[in-house]
Every structure is written in C-alpha cells, then in structure tokens.
Amino acid sequence: MTNYVIWTLLIPLLAGIIMLFIPQRVILQRTISIIASIILLINTVLLVFQIQTEGIQKMELGGWAPPFGIILVGDMLSGLLVLTTALVIIPILIYSFSSIGVEREKKYYYSIFFFLVTGVLGAFLTGDLFNMFVFFEVFLLSSYVLIVHGSTQKQLRESFKYVLINILSSALFVIGVAYLYAVIGTLNMAHLGERIASLTEPAPILTVIALMFLIIFGLKGAIFPLYFWLPASYTAPPTAIGALFGALLTKVGIYAIFRTYSIIFVHDPAYTHTVLGVLAALTMIFGVIGAVAHKDVTKILVYNVIVAVGFVLFGVSTMTEAGYQGAIYYVIHDMIIKAALFLLIGALVTVGGTKYLKQMGGIIKYHPALGWLFLVAVFALVGIPPLSGFIGKVLLIQGGTTVGDYWIVFLMMVASLLVLYSMIRIFLQGFYGKSVLSSKEEHGTTKGLLFPISLLIALSVLLGIGAEFLYPFVQTATEVLLQPELYINAVLKE
Amino acid sequence: MMKLNDIVIQTTTKFVLFIILAFSIFIFFNGHHHPGGGFIGGLMTSAAITLLLLAFDFETVKRILPIDFKILTASGMLIATLTGMGGLVFGGPFLSHTFGYVHLPFFGEVELATALLFDLGVYFVVVGSALTIIEMIGGDQ
C-alpha cells in the first residue's frame, strides 16, 4: 500500500532539492516544477479519497510508535487543506513563469517556492507539536527568502520587519512548547489531548498556555491585535509571491489554532473559546476598516485577508458542527479566492502601472476578460449564492446563531457588505470608470496572466456549484474535530 | 592583496589545519556512541577551511578546494532525503534505519549504521552552508 502522507512531503522536497543543482537552467526548472506540482496534486487527491474510505492515515517516521516517535497524521481536515494547497500552487507557478522575470528565476526562486510548500504541507500533516514548530520554520525561512527575493528597496525594508516579528513569534512558540512539555510531559498532539482530557480538574496553567498558543498562532495567522505586520509585508514582494503568501501562510496559523483548539485545549472552552470569538469579531472589524479606508488596491486586498481570518476563527470559536463545517468550507474557499484576487490585482497593477485607485480607470475597455473575471472573483469572495463563498458563510452564521453569538453574526454580515463595497470600488473605479490610458500607453500586458487566473476562478465556481460533492468530506473532517477521541484513538491505539 | 609577511601564520596553518580536519572527522564518526555527529563535525571542518581562508586569500583556497559550496549543500540535502527514502524502498516507514556488523580488513569488526549516511548529509549541508555564507560575505571584494 502506498503511503500518500509521506509522499505529500517528499515530492515538493525532492523537487526543491533537485532544482538547487540547476539554478541557471530556467526552462528545465519550470518543467520540473510544473511536473512536480501535478504529481503532488494527484497524490493529494488520492490521499483525500484514501482518508474518506479508510479513515485517518498516519506515518510513523522511523517505525517508532507514538507517543515516542514523530508521526505524520492525515485526517480529513489536513487532507482537504493539503489538497487545496496543491491546487493553488499550480496557477501561481504558471503565473510566475510569465511574471517573475528570468533574473529572479535564476536565483533559486523555484527551489525556495517548493521548500515553502514543503513547510506548509508538513505543518498541515504533522501530529507532533515540536515538529509543527520545525515545519513552521521551514516555511518561514523560505518566506523570508521570497519576501526579499530580488532586493528592491521596499522588499528590503519590509522583510526586515517581517523577519523580526516572526523571530519573536517563533521564540514564543518554543517557550510555549517548553511550558506544555513541562506541564504535560509529551509533545505528541494526540497524547497531549488524551492526557489533558483525563485530568479531573484542569489546571489554570493550561488555560494560560492555551492563550499563549493563541498569541503565537495569532501572530502567524494575523488575528486582531497581532496583524499589524501583514499589510506592508504582503504587498512588498512581486505578485506571485504575494499570492502564495496570501493563499497559504496565514491559513497555516489558522489551521494550527483549529487543531490545538479542537484536540488539545478543550478543557475550559467557556473562557478560551470566548476569547477566540471576541478576537475573531475584532479581527473582522479592524480588517474591514482597513479595507474600506485604503485607496491602494493591494492594501485593500491584504486587509481582506485579515477579514477572512476573522470569519474562520469565529467558526472555530463556536465549537458547533455547523460552525466547524462553515470554517472548513470558508478556509478552502478563501485559499483559492485570495490567490485569484492577488493574481488579478497584480495583473491590474501591471496593466495600469499604478496601485492607486484615483489614477486608474477604464481598464475593462481593453481588457474585458480581466475585468469580468475580477467581478466574478469579487462576487465569490463576498458569497453571492452560486459561488464558493456562500455556503461557508451560511454555515458560519448557522453555527453562530446556534450558540447565540448574534452580535458576532451581525458584525459578520456587516463586514461582508463592507468587503463587497471595498472590492466593488476597485471594479467601478479601476475597471469601469473613465478611461485614463489608451491601449498604447499601458504599462504591460496580461499575456500569460489570464490563464492561471481563470483556472483559479473556475475552481472557485466549481467549489460553489459542487458544494454538495464536497460535503461528505467536510463532514468527515468535522466528525474528527467534534470528537477528538477519534483522532486520539487513530494515532495512539492502532 | 597580502602586503605583510605572514609566514608565521601560514606555516602554523599548514600544521594545524590537518589536526583540525582529522579531529572533525573523528568527531563525525564518533557521533553514534559518544558526543559528536554531523553537525559539530561539519562546523569544525568549516572552521578549518575558514582558517585556511584567513591565512591565504580566496583565490588560493579556491584553487586548493575547487568545490562549489552551494552544490555541496544541495548534495547533502539529497543524501539525507534519499537515506530516509531507503526505508521506503525496503517496505518500512520513511526515515527508518538499520545497522549491521561488518568485518573490514584493517579496522576489524565495525558497526555500520545507515544513520551514518544521514549524518553525512547533515555534514555536507553544514559545511556547504557555513562556507557559502563566508564566501558570500567575505569574497565580494
């Protein structure tokens, strides 16, 4: 029997290593990277179907049984996120081919790209808290390189802040892991969950540690008071890299909160999950304020990333079936649509030659496809019914009303409306409006950029229409979140 | 480049270099049963080559050691990953290791473990990346 869990990590890792040997051969690197990502996609699809039919998959590294060895666990939540990652990187790669530039490609761009993907996939699949830290470092180190790659002045400045804040949060992560190890005596997540669940009277220190992990993952995933680093650092690098970050990096932080707050820290939900809910609400408010206030199209977009983090965390905080399902749907939808929007905005900035709304206009006249794709993406982002954002939000609202968080649900709807306003402003002013440039004055072409964007939009539409098809998978994922015993037994007892 | 007469440091380096290199290799092989291993062994080898860089100049060292350290790092990663995949080939899980006792002509009975190959990968990565950093920062003039 093939173990798809381990191959999910090995394929991008090997691709990255092989491309280290051939930095100068750009065409060969492009070929390898696209082949590797397609194999990865097939592998993850098989993994998801295997989890659906045979239950939770695991890989005990070196043959050492947990809790003593390191274990990789593929349950449905990780499976779906891994699959979405594999889906999203293909269009971003194709977009890189025509936009990133040969100079950057020769400086190990694709290797670092695949190391980042390895780190993200590893963080989704690991069953061990310290290994999660290691995989966090793998993708963070790669993201440090990518954010400064090409060394323009802006990238140098923003990468400095980004590295600083992430080193701080990594140090906190180590301290949090040390506290948890000192209190519980294990780092395997299933074992941690089992031991904490078996405590007759949970110690307050566990709640402290739970909040510490919320701070750590909040710094990675950009929740309310800890999102300040994100807007500048995600707009500094080139579009393809920004899309990669926007689609994957914050979602790893969200996934980590998802995982720890559903399996490990479930001893005092009245406190921890209320804090989570309040922070989620504040994240929505502040994200949406940023999105509405800015006149720079890239900034509008990155604040929308923050709003989405708030939506998903709210689903996690409800601890209900509908809430979890909504959060899973929404995180999958958001990975795809944020990648699409980053690429669209990148194409818009390339064509218009400016980031500022006031200076652009009438781009739809010469680029109708780009304009209408953008409109579809915006509708999908907000959740107009046939498109992908709808079902997630409906389930989130359902979950919220079940537990009586009416004010957060209300905030969420208002936030959705304002998200629509912020994005439609780009459409009305940038694409529609009065023409500023004639076709000869444009600053670049959309050649090669439209194909990957339409791939992502097609995915998003399919996700909306095929919600029924996806539902059983999401249900399987939710079962494990609602009954952590399933996860614990699968890891420890078999 | 070198204006001063640094005969003392160059002569000393020629002797000390081999002691450091030998010690680093000793430390590298020692790792399974005693303190040591790929990481510290690799750092010590890089220290030896750094000493060579201090005593002589970049061109000389490049002539003595015509190695692209970036390729060395990549090979180290490849070796480590392939060693891990060896476990998969033989039907075990990833990163599973094995060991055996081999009778070598000069050393007698020796315990050989596949963990040593993984360590060799680590060793290459450490030497390669440490020297790449030094080369990048120091070699630009």
From TrEMBL, chain A:
<keyword id="KW-0812">Transmembrane</keyword>
<keyword id="KW-0813">Transport</keyword>
<comment type="similarity">
    <text>Belongs to the CPA3 antiporters (TC 2.A.63) subunit D family.</text>
</comment>
<feature type="transmembrane region" description="Helical">
    <location>
        <begin position="71"/>
        <end position="96"/>
    </location>
</feature>
<feature type="transmembrane region" description="Helical">
    <location>
        <begin position="132"/>
        <end position="150"/>
    </location>
</feature>
<feature type="transmembrane region" description="Helical">
    <location>
        <begin position="300"/>
        <end position="319"/>
    </location>
</feature>
<feature type="transmembrane region" description="Helical">
    <location>
        <begin position="162"/>
        <end position="184"/>
    </location>
</feature>
<dbReference type="InterPro" id="IPR050586">
    <property type="entry name" value="CPA3_Na-H_Antiporter_D"/>
</dbReference>
<feature type="transmembrane region" description="Helical">
    <location>
        <begin position="34"/>
        <end position="51"/>
    </location>
</feature>
<dbReference type="Pfam" id="PF00361">
    <property type="entry name" value="Proton_antipo_M"/>
</dbReference>
<feature type="domain" description="NADH:quinone oxidoreductase/Mrp antiporter transmembrane">
    <location>
        <begin position="127"/>
        <end position="418"/>
    </location>
</feature>
<dbReference type="InterPro" id="IPR003918">
    <property type="entry name" value="NADH_UbQ_OxRdtase"/>
</dbReference>
<keyword id="KW-1003">Cell membrane</keyword>
<feature type="transmembrane region" description="Helical">
    <location>
        <begin position="240"/>
        <end position="258"/>
    </location>
</feature>
<feature type="transmembrane region" description="Helical">
    <location>
        <begin position="449"/>
        <end position="474"/>
    </location>
</feature>
<protein>
    <submittedName>
        <fullName>Na+/H+ antiporter subunit D</fullName>
    </submittedName>
</protein>
<dbReference type="InterPro" id="IPR001750">
    <property type="entry name" value="ND/Mrp_TM"/>
</dbReference>
<feature type="transmembrane region" description="Helical">
    <location>
        <begin position="369"/>
        <end position="387"/>
    </location>
</feature>
<feature type="transmembrane region" description="Helical">
    <location>
        <begin position="108"/>
        <end position="126"/>
    </location>
</feature>
<feature type="transmembrane region" description="Helical">
    <location>
        <begin position="204"/>
        <end position="228"/>
    </location>
</feature>
<keyword id="KW-0050">Antiport</keyword>
<keyword id="KW-1133">Transmembrane helix</keyword>
<feature type="transmembrane region" description="Helical">
    <location>
        <begin position="270"/>
        <end position="293"/>
    </location>
</feature>
<feature type="transmembrane region" description="Helical">
    <location>
        <begin position="6"/>
        <end position="22"/>
    </location>
</feature>
<keyword id="KW-0472">Membrane</keyword>
<feature type="transmembrane region" description="Helical">
    <location>
        <begin position="407"/>
        <end position="428"/>
    </location>
</feature>
